[in-house]
Amino acid sequence: MNKFKQNISGNKLIRGKWAQIQLTPNIITGEKINIGIAMLDENGIVHARVAKNLDRLNCLYDDIDSAEFENKISVFQTFMDGASVDILEELNMFENISFSDMKPTKGNSYEEVLDRLFKQMVPVGIPQKKERKKKFETIRTSELRAKVFAGIKKNLGEELSKQYIHANKWKINIPNEAATVSLDLPLRNQSKNRAGTIVSGWYSSDEKVKVSLYEAVLDIRTAKDYLYDEKLGLFILRPDEESGLSQKTIRKIDSAIDQQAELLVRKNVDVEIQTQTNALIDAAGNWIAA
Prior knowledge:
By secondary structure, the protein is an alpha+beta fold. The chain has helices at residues 66-80, 110-121, 141-156, 158-162, 206-226, 247-266, 277-289, and strands at residues 14-23, 33-40, 46-50, 97-99, 103-107, 170-173, 180-183, 187-189, 194-200, 231-237, 270-274.
């Protein structure tokens, strides 16, 4: 994983370094299949794009479960996308996944670079042309936040939204200690002492939802411990019956979300849970501007 720890130019152009995310379906034979792209930006943040459909692996291997690998890779992306490069050292649990050597790249945006490299380097991610049953589509937290922030800007206006939406993590001082802690609370209204975050629960299993919620809940609880006058909020998107998930899976996800929500509500944290992105935009925008 230390391949990622390389310095990147700090100029204003969108530049970074990228690597292929590679899957070894059979540890014994050792073949590596490109299943995604990881890009490290100038701030040491990882951006990732992985294949959502691995049916093409069945053409190469008769004895593998492509759906199992899809779930493993999805969990891997949940850990990695948007994380600091240092977190990559902790991904040793994914024994089938590795990275190629890193190479420099540039482009108009991180999304543009990821799209271009993914199309060029990950042919296994191209869906087969045969008709397939409609599959559940994950909504990652990074995707959800982008939509919510865009919606808030549209509703409140660009200038006013700048007061409430913050891209950088919030560094706070720990009382009675010569230390600081960085909290991922992108919604902040300093004049009203309000801070909150947005997290997606729109994943294909309750285990992935727990992973998605973990850091958000930890940041909220840390802020609660040290920012006594701050009103805190958590905004969650959960899957509904039209998401493509089974009722059993939805119930498990609901239980995972409700368990964390109840603990925070007891600590006087405002928690809003919605099944529609537009409803979450309205709730988050109204709350932070209140």
